Amino acid sequence: MSSESVDVLIIGAGAAGAAFAWSMAETRMNILCLEQGGWVKTDDYPGLRADWEARQFGDFAFSPNVRGRREDYPINDGGSPIQISNFNAVGGSTILYAAHFPRFHPSDFRVRTLDGVGDDWPIDYATLAPWYDLNARMMGVSGLTGDPMYPPDKRVPLPPVPLGKLGEMLARGFNALGWHWWPSDSAITTAEYEGRAACINAGTCLLGCPQGAKASSDVTYWPLAIRKGVRVEAHCRVREITVDERGMADGVIYYDAVGTERRQRAHVVVVACNGVGTPRLLLNSRSKHFPDGLANRSGLVGKRLMFHPYALVTGIFPERLEGYKGPSGCCIISQEFYETDRARGFLRGYSFEMLRGFGPVSTAMIGLSAGRMPHGADHHRAFDQLWDRNAGMVAICEDLPDERNTVTLDPELGDSDGVPAPRITYRLSENSRAMLDHAVARGAEVLAASGATDTMVQAPLPFAGWHLMGTARMGIDPATSVVNEWGRAHDVKNLFVIDGSVFPTSAGVNPTNTIQAVALHVADTMKKNLANLFD
Amino acid sequence: MTDIPAAADLSADQRRALACVLDALVPPSPDGRLPGAGAAGVATHVERTLRTLPDLRAMVVDGLRDLDVQARAQHGRPFVACGEGERAALVAAQGFGYALVPHTYVGYYQQDAVLEAIGMEPRPPHPKGYTVAENDLSLLAPVKARSKRYREC
Ligand SMILES: Cc1cc2nc3c(=O)[nH]c(=O)nc-3n(C[C@H](O)[C@H](O)[C@H](O)COP(=O)(O)OP(=O)(O)OC[C@H]3O[C@@H](n4cnc5c(N)ncnc54)[C@H](O)[C@@H]3O)c2cc1C
Ligand code: SF4
After folding, report:
1. What domains are there in chain A, each with its CATH number?
2. CA A354, A359, A364, A368 torsion: positive or negative?
3. If you measure from the C-alpha of residue A86 to the centroid of ligand 1, how many angstroms do you get, rounded to a whole number?
4. Ligand nearest the Cα atom of residue A209
5. Which residues of chain B have pLDDT under 70?
6. A contacts of B129 (beta carbons < 8 Å)
7. pLDDT by residue (tens digit) across A410-421?
8. What is the pTM of this model?
9. Beta-carbon count within 10 A of B147 CB
10. Which residues of B fall within a CB distance of 8 Å from A388?
11. What pLDDT is stored for residue A3 in this prediction?
12. Which of A107, A148, A181 sits opposite B148 (nearest CB)?
C-alpha cells in the first residue's frame, strides 16, 4: 500500500466518513479510508451479557480516558467542565450514540442575521434538505411527519419509536402545559428495513446495538460503500497529513495495527475525525508551508469548540414506568423553547429530549451520586424509591462559538503511538448558564405536570461532551474560516473537512444528521466539480 | 473484557471476610426477598474489579486484616464469626467499605436473584428484548392544532 497513490483518502470511518465514502463510490475512483479503530463484532456488544451495564465503566465507557483501548487516544479535558465522549472504531461514535436524529431548523443557518450572535452559515436549510432526505433513507430513520416545528416536507421512512408508558405520561404533561412535543426522529429501524432487523426495545443503545437496528454507520453506509469498491483499513492511525513543495496535500504518515510507521500517498485528502480528532490531526501536521498546523493560516483550527451544554433533569414518579423498555435515548422531543425569545434572558434556545428510565445498575449509581442511595440497612428502601420510577429528560442547549474554547495539542500527553494528544480548554458562557437554569426550571415544571413527585438535577452534565463542533469552521472568507461552503480548505485546495468541525454554529439539537447531510453535500459538490476540483 | 492475571486473587479467608463486608454494605432486605450482597455472590465481581485497581486492593487487604484484629479485640472472635450487627458496626468504624460501595452496587444489580426480586427477568436485554405497547398518537391532537412554530428564513 505504501507506494500506490489513491485518488481519495478519507481519514476516520465514523458518521461523516461513511456517508461521504458511499456517495463518492459511484465515481469509481480509487478510494481508501484509514481508521484507527477496528470493526465491532456483534458478539462484542455488552447488551448480550449479564454484566452489560457494568461495562459502561470499562471497555464501553463514553470517555476514551476510561476505556483506554489501544485505538483510543487520551484527551486532556481537565480544563473543561464538560468531558469528551466518543468511540473509535469503524462506525466511530455512532457505535455508542443514542441515535436521536433531528434536523437543524432553517433559522439555525441564519443565527447572526436573526439574533445578532454567532455567525450565519454559508449554506442554508434548503441546501441540506435533499441530503437530510437521502440520509433518512440511508440510515433508516423513524419518526412522524407533520411536526409544526419543521418545514412540512420533512419525511422519514419508518414509523416512530414506541413512546411507552413513560413517554405517554410525559406527553400528557406537555399537553397540560400547552407545550410542544413530538415523537423523536430516531435513526433506529422500528420495522425491518433494507436487510436490517427491527428494534426489539432492549434499551442498550448507548452501549451499542447487537441487533443492528440502531443506525451506526458500520451497519448502514459502510457495507454499501465497500460493496461499491471503497476500501477500509482498520487499526491505522494517521499521525500527520503531508504536503508537497507547492503546499498541496500529498498523503499521510500513519501507524498500522502493530505500530509500524507507513506512508500513503493520495490526490485528495478528506478529514473526518470529528470536532476534536480533526483539529488534533491538522495541528499535528506542521510543515514549512504550514508551521502552525495544516490549513491554519486563519489561526482558527481548533478554535471555537462547541458542545451542547446539557441539563439532565430526572423525575421521580410514584408508580412503575417500565422505563427500561425501549430505545434508551429516543422517545419524545420538545422544542417549545427552541427559537429565540429575548424575554427569557438568553439568546437562541434548546430542545428537551426524553430519555427512558435507567437500568438497575445505573439507577443505583445515579442515586449514589445524588446522595440518595445509602448503603446499609436503608439501602433497599432507597433503591425501591428510585427503581423504575425515574424518567430522565435532557435539555440540549445551543452553544455560542467563542474563540477561547479550544482544542490544542497537549505538550506532554500522547497516544499509544506517541502522537500528541488533544487538550480541551472550555468555559461555559453566561448565555449557556442562563439557558441551563431556564431548562432546569422548565424541566422540573413539566415533570411535575406529568406526575413526578421529585426531581434530581445535573447541569451541566459533566460527561456530555459528545457533540463536537466548530473547530475548523466553514465560511466564505479565508481570513475568518478554515474551509469553504463545500468543505474545501481555503489554504489547501485538495484537502477537505467533512465532520462537525465545519459547523459555524451548533443549533440546539443533536448534530449527526446534519454532519452526514453536510458530508453528502460536500461529496455531491465534489462530484459536480471533478474536472476543476482544485481551481 | 480484558483477561486479568490470577496472581492477584484473594485467599479463601479474605474472600469470606469480603463477603461479610459486602453483606454489611447491602444487607438482605427485611422481608427476605432480596439477598445480601455477600450472599448474592458479589464478592466475585468486586474481586475481579480489585485486580484492575491495585491501590484499592491493597486498601481492602489491609482493611480486612484490621477488621479481624478489631473483632478479636472487641468481641473475642474472628470478624467472620461475629453477628450481623457486630459486623455492620465494625465495617462502619473501619471505613474502607465506603470505597467498595460503587463496586458493590454495580455487582449486586447484575445478579439474577436480585433482578428477579426487583421485577425484571434474569437475563441480558439482548437478544430477546422487550415488548412495548402501541403508541397512542391521539395525544398529539393539541400539538397538531397549533400553527407552525419554526422561523421562516
Ligand atoms: C454516548 C454518545 C451518545 C451520542 N448520542 C447522539 C445522538 O443521540 N444523536 C446524535 O446526533 N449524535 C449523538 N452522538 C454524537 C455522534 O456520535 C457524533 O456526532 C458522530 O458520530 C460524529 O461523526 P464523525 O464522523 O464526525 O465522528 P466520529 O463518529 O467520532 O468518527 C470519527 C472517527 O475518526 C477516527 N479517527 C480520529 N482520528 C484519527 C486518526 N488520526 N487516524 C485514523 N482515524 C482517526 C476515530 O477513530 C473515529 O472512528 C453521541 C455520541 C456519544 C459518544
Ligand atoms: S433498543 Fe433497539 S436500537 Fe436500542 S439497542 Fe435495543 S434493539 Fe438496538
Report:
1. 5-153+196-307+401-425+471-532 (3.50.50.60)
2. negative
3. 6
4. 2
5. 1-8
6. 199-202, 211
7. 999 999 999 999
8. 0.96
9. 5
10. 118-119
11. 61
12. A148
